[in-house]
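Hey,
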Amino acid sequence: MDQMRVFEELVLGTRTKRLSDLLMAEVQVVYDARDIALSPGFFSLFYLIHTNGPVTVTDAAAQLGVSHPFVSKMATRMVSEGWLEKVSDPRDERRQRLFLSPKAEKTIPELQPIWNSLKQCLREALTEAQKRSDGGNFLQQMTELEDFLSEQSLSSRTLDRLESAEQKAETRIIGWSSDHRTAFRDINTRYLHALFPGEITEQDEKRLENPEATILATGGAIFLAQNKERIVGTCCLIAHPDDRYEIAKLTVAPDYRGTGTGRKLLLKSLGEARQLGARTVFLESNSSLKSALRLYERTGFRTCPPPSGLCSSSRCNLYMELDYDHA
């Protein structure tokens, strides 16, 4: 029996420290596996300077909410290990500012995906702990968090996620091939059934069953996201009169969402539209698809009234345009 749990609130500080030590050790396992000789204990100061720029020890202590001696000792170690450099403040030579060293700057591209994966794994663990505790207090949630991490270690979860993300990052965008007709139809049909059951239109069916005649033959294009031999996403560029092109069937398999695949497909399609001389590219969507709408907005699309007054499909309540004359 874990006596720490028996002692309940009386060992809150000790138990919190135990959890902290466990997490630090797990992060060290991840760093070691990736051949990064950075102490997890340096993260707070390292990340503060990475995100906010150079700081003095006094400013860092204030921003992190820790003591001046704590930051000073950490900074000294980080300088000695080559992660930080100290430079005199030109406004006051008695003050020294801490900068990330060239070694640190060079390592950041390796660290960023690790930090992202750790954040996602910890967020999942915290969410699961809260769910398992069923509204319990902090100690109950801590117990569930410890149990959840004992089922599979944080380091193992993080390394698995990193490997999966790296494999998915190998996704490439290819042009249309009739060899992928079945995959094109299936991925879009599953998407429509999952999000809009019973709302597949006659036009949907024609485009999915015969994309060569309904999309390619009329001056459009079809792009596919391929990872190894699997098709994991699609995007269509459909030609309309007056040099207008429509983005349609931008679909990504559920296990590839959040990997940048949708953005790759959209950018490829927009690049093709520009090559074809498009004046305007438009799309129809639904306001419930928040992630998709953020992607469209980030690539320059703006919401406006549809030219005909209504969207062409009942499942769409949003019309967006990207005007190349002003892009």
